[in-house]
Amino acid sequence: MDLIPGIIYSFAALFIILDPLLSVPIFAAMTKGQTPAEIHKQAFIAVSVAGGLMYLFLIFNKTIFDILGLTLPSFQIAGGILLFLLGIQEALGIEIGHCKDRAKTAAGVVIGTPLLCGPGTITTVMLLSKDYGLLIPFIAITLSLLATWLILYYSELIQRVLGEVVTDIMGKVLGMLVAAIAIKIVASGVMAMATVH
After folding, report:
1. Long-range contacts of range 165-174, CB-CB < 8 Å, 24 or more positions apart?
2. Which of 20, 134, 179, 190 is most buried, by the most CB atoms less than 10 A from its CB?
3. Dihedral-angle region of residue 163 (phi above 0 means left; psi in -120 to 50 means alpha; beta otherwise)
């Protein structure tokens, strides 16, 4: 009886926190000049990275942090720093790193985490597993990843509809917003770590 409402609620929560539409201009900017096949590959990598982390934390929950001696605040700070670098890179139109082959795979990995699957997503997955167990969040994660993959897969089409200039402007503005969000994540991580100690 509670299966369908639970899946709908969990899917909505995860889709909102993943926010794949936010990633489209950034993803389009990072994969600019790549072939459709490469873009589709990056979309798959991004969803695979995000999905791998989400399933991992769904099944093993806090065990991973306990084994490594880490806390969620420390993960927040690390994720926030990476997200800040991504935001600066997109806002200023600079490329961090020098290896072209690495740059090709960077889009998928960086979009996958921390942009799609950051501290907020992992926390949401952990909370859903507490409330619903494993089955409902597992189905919801799968559905949200499928929706995210479709949006990223057709990012080139979305970019064409919006136009290159609009997408470029959106990418730079969103880069600043991503940097601002990153600072907020780092600040909340620092505050949480301070209260623990």
Report:
1. 167/25, 167/28, 167/29, 168/29, 170/25, 171/25, 171/26, 171/28, 171/29, 171/90, 172/90, 172/91, 172/93, 174/22, 174/25, 174/26, 174/90
2. 20
3. left
Q: How much is the mean pLDDT over the chain?
A: 83
- Supply the angle between the helices 135-153 and 20-30 in degrees, to the nearest 10: 40
> Position 53: which residue type?
L
Cα(117)–Cα(79) distance, rounded to whole angstroms?
10
Within the chain, residue ranges assigned H as helices are 3-18, 20-30, 36-60, 63-68, 72-92, 100-110, 119-132, 135-153, 155-162, 164-196
Is it the case that residue 20 has pLDDT exceeding 80?
yes
User: Which tokens hold the place of 150?
Assistant: 């479709």
Taking the model in full, what pTM does it have?
Answer: 0.73
Query: What is the Cβ-side half-sphere exposure of residue 48, based on CA atoms within 13 angstroms?
Result: 10
Nearest to 64 by CA among 73, 56, 52: 56
